[in-house]
């Protein structure tokens, strides 16, 4: 198939593009490089042995987007492009709603005249809100606590309404838990700009000497060791989930929501120990106050994706840490400009 991938140069997008190309699909990346580098696109081609096409376009530039979509002539779209920092979204709500929600509307309106009606959307377990009932199933109530989360919530609703109005749209909403790790080659991985918000990139940067020590945000949660518990899944497993969802959508159509997670919760202390085990590098840390907005625990019930997609997230936390470390140690400053 010919597949348009928005945000294809980003962390999850780049890993998904490699798998799509390896599966024989043609890939057209739409990316404005606002939080990614052209080098990622070059390395996608290097890994897959075959390049992706590139349209350097901002989803908010409606005229350029219409042209790029018409020229690409996709049969399906995987939509990653968006802003994703929770704290930043609280400070800049309008920017988040415009980029994420209006960007998605532009994309859907650009697709409408082309006849392409198959969309896989990058959502987040953050839509399960502040007091999740664990393990999380897809039919759990949804809400949000910050503009980033609300933007995902709103886009999910827009996609559901679109399918309800016209069931020729085939829609998969994928709710990710915590994507971590990197391609086993060490050639592509997560390249956060500035101070990393997320645990694994921060731990990796401490290990490589870019940061002095990790702050553990609270050890007084109601969890077995008091630190936050999350469902960490390998980014290559997550990428494979997109292919499985896409193939299923093409077979059966419809509107689907699938959790993509391992089903296992791991604490911050467990992640530190696994990283030290996988790398032999000690991680200095101090326990600090809780981070505002954090919840004690979140992990998936991935049964629906396991059964309907034949997909599971198989990589262990140790394999995740080893792959994260290969990427970080071979690319200590991330991608070159
Ligand atoms: N943590 C630390 N120190 C850090 C960073 C994180 O102790 O420097 C802890 C957090 O308190 C949490 C765990 O590590 O317990 C994981 O934190 P992340 O920031 O890596 O992940 P979150 O689960 O908080 O965030 C993820 C996604 C967001 C999404 C959010 C809510 O990255 O996009 O889940 O579901 F909004």
Fourth-level CATH superfamily of the domain at 2-182 and 232-261 = NAD(P)-binding Rossmann-like Domain
Overall shape: it is globular
CATH class of the domain at 2-182 and 232-261: Alpha Beta
Q: With helices defined by DSSP (H or I, 4 residues minimum), what is the helix count?
A: 11
Q: Bound compounds, please?
A: uridine-5'-diphosphate-4-deoxy-4-fluoro-alpha-D-galactose
Computed Rg: 19 Å
**CATH architectural category of the domain at 2-182 and 232-261:** 3-Layer(aba) Sandwich
Q: What is the chain-wise order of helices and strands?
A: EHEHEHEHHEHEEHEEEHEEHEHH
The CATH topology assignment of the domain at 2-182 and 232-261 is Rossmann fold
Q: Tell me the total number of β-strands.
A: 13
- Strand order within the widest sheet? 3-2-1-4-5-6-11
> Share of helix among residues?
40-55%
What features would you describe in this structure?
The chain is α/β, with parallel strands linked by helices. The protein has a domain at about 1-180 and about 230-260: Rossmann fold (3-Layer(aba) Sandwich). The protein is about 40% helix and about 15% strand. It has helices at about 10-20, 40-50, 60-70, 85-90, 95-110, 145-165, 200-205, 235-250, 270-280, 305-310, 315-330, and strands at about 1-5, 25-30, 55, 75-80, 120-125, 170-175, 180, 215, 230, 230-235, 255-260, 265, 285-290. The strands form 4 sheets. The chain has a 7-stranded parallel β-sheet, with helices on both faces. It has a two-stranded parallel ribbon with strand order 7-10. Helix 2 (about 40-50) links the parallel strand 2 (about 25-30) and strand 3 (about 55). Helix 7 crosses helix 11 (about 315-330). The mean pLDDT is about 95. Bound molecules: uridine-5'-diphosphate-4-deoxy-4-fluoro-alpha-D-galactose.
